[in-house]
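Async update (no meeting this week)

Hi team, since we skipped the sync, here's where things stand on the single-chain job. The sequence we agreed to prioritize is pasted below, unchanged from the tracker. I ran it this morning and attached the output directly underneath so nobody has to dig for it. Comments welcome in thread, and please keep replies under the output.
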Amino acid sequence: MAMNCIKSLRNLPVTSGLGASRTFAAGAKAKKGKGGAAADAPKQSTLSKEVKSTTVVGANILKDGTDPKILPDSEYPDWLWHLLDKKPALSELRRKNIETLPYEDLKRFVKLDNRARIKENNTTRAKN
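Output:
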């Protein structure tokens, strides 16, 4: 069946692209004026500042739903506030005593050290 489709496509006449013209969709309107700087400018929001400060605009994924309200900080879990905390780099962890590292830092040290060793082994094998 696929061979029949390919054979039928081969038999189609090929026309040059010089006589073809591009058209726009029926509902499209042409831009008026020069430049287009006004069209590129950001549009004014129709939402009030009060609505923006009390809801998470655009977070609704349901067809019939509404945007969720912003809750007070006490309503959110504690771990949420530590997601963006800086974690120590491998060089910083190497300078510290491994015996005194907390479990999370030790786990990060092992992970980063293994990753660095693998990269080093890959570069030495690539040179040989």
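Quick observations from my side:
The first helix runs from residue 2 to 10.
The CA atoms of residues 78 and 84 lie 12 Å apart.
Reply here if anything looks off.
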